[in-house]
Design goal:
Blueprint (H helix, E strand, L loop, with lengths): L3 E4 L5 H8 L3 E4 L9 H10 L2 E4 L7 H6 L5 E4 L9 H6 L3 E3 L6 H16 L2 H9 L20 E5 L3 H12 L3 E5 L5 H7 L2 E2 L2 H7 L2 E4 L13 H6 L5 E4 L8 H9 L5 E4 L19 E3 L8 H19 L12
Parallel strand pairs: 1-2, 1-3, 3-4, 4-5, 6-7, 6-9, 7-8, 9-10, 10-11, 11-12
Helix pairs in contact: 1-12, 5-7
The structure holds 2-keto-D-gluconic acid.
Length: 322
């Protein structure tokens, strides 16, 4: 019998083709509906490998029914949907897709920063809705980006790639990270500072930190109060790093100027969520890495990792201890 692989979302045929000869592969075939928990549990019972998405909770229950499970390849750099410790206890390798998505996610982060600062979404709607009747000196005037200070929270590979973009815009670069990044300091002139110092002095506060017990609710009311009134907050990491209610209050009270958000506490966000009613919020449906090229690279990386582990080799991007 061939080893069995379950893929929790529909992927293009060309991405799964390399697995077809050696393995039995089943894909959840609904493009825009997450695999129901009951189906995931049933599949985990049979699977040697799972190819998962951020929306799949891979926890002790999955590992304990998945008696044959050897590898979980997550189509993301983040893996906060997976209980890493339990995976190790059950001897399951967990792999992610680092680096291949850094440029694409940095592009999107910068697009969100620019859209928010220069009010691109509001302005585009203004034209399409036929509201452009005359030119006015301050019509849809936003904030400059060049020569301003960007504060990057989380200087991993996406953070340092955003810093490169910022350098091209002649920005001053501050960053806060668990450890100092001497290469980024030397190459881009980025300045390491405390979290408080960063939020107090940056014009753009860009959140790119992974979601962990330490970073959950990192951005609260007190933090937004410390920011400049003209500050623009960008989140392209994980929703729960931010207290959304506090962010809403800060925007409502004009404690900060605007926010660009690719991620939310609950995804998909409820369309009635008050944040979405604010004109100074640009909201995107978690599309940081969503270019065709990069998503194909991510899928290929997952497929390669699964094949390596099921062939008895080391995966390329294992994140948990053995
Ligand atoms: C995911 C992401 O690819 O990589 C991550 O951690 O957040 C995105 O790039 C996307 O959420 C699909 O799982």
């Amino acid at each position: 019998m061939k080893p069995y692989i379950f893929i929790t979302r529909k992927l293009p045929d060309e991405a799964v083709e390399p697995l077809k000869n050696k393995y039995e592969v089943t894909m959840w075939d609904k493009e825009d509906v997450a695999v129901p928990r009951s189906v995931l549990l049933e599949e985990a019972k049979k699977a040697d490998a799972l190819l998962t998405m951020l929306s799949d909770k891979i926890d002790e229950e999955i590992f304990s029914v998945g008696e044959n499970l050897k590898v979980v390849a997550n189509l993301a750099v983040g893996y906060d949907n997976i209980d890493i410790q339990k995976a190790s206890e059950h001897g399951v390798a967990v792999c992610n897709t680092p680096d291949v998505l850094a440029d694409t996610t940095a592009d999107l982060t910068f697009a969100l920063l620019m859209a928010t600062a220069r009010r691109i979404v509001e302005a585009a709607e203004f034209v399409k809705e036929g509201k452009w009747k005359s030119w006015a000196p301050l019509l849809l005037a936003g904030h400059d980006i060049h020569h301003k200070t960007i504060g990057i929270v989380g200087m991993g590979s996406i953070g340092s790639t955003v810093a490169k973009r910022a350098k091209g815009f002649d920005m001053n670069i501050l960053y806060h990270n668990r450890s100092r990044k001497m290469d980024v300091e030397a190459e881009l002139g980025a300045i390491y500072c405390s979290f408080d110092e960063l939020v107090e002095s940056a014009d753009f506060i860009v959140c790119l930190t992974p979601l962990t017990a330490e970073t959950k609710d990192l951005f609260t009311k007190d933090v937004f109060k410390k920011m400049k009134k003209t500050a623009i907050f960008i989140n392209a990491s994980r929703g729960p790093v931010v207290n959304e209610e506090d962010l809403y209050q800060a925007l409502e009270a004009s404690d900060i100027a605007a926010a660009g958000l690719d991620v939310f506490e609950q995804e998909p966000i409820d369309p009635a969520h008050p944040l979405l009613k604010l004109p100074n919020v640009v909201a995107l449906p978690h599309i940081g890495s969503a270019s065709i090229e990069t998503r194909m690279d991510m899928m290929n990386m997952c497929v390669e990792n699964i094949d390596l582990v099921l062939s008895g080799q080391e995966s390329k991007t294992r994140v948990n201890k053995k």
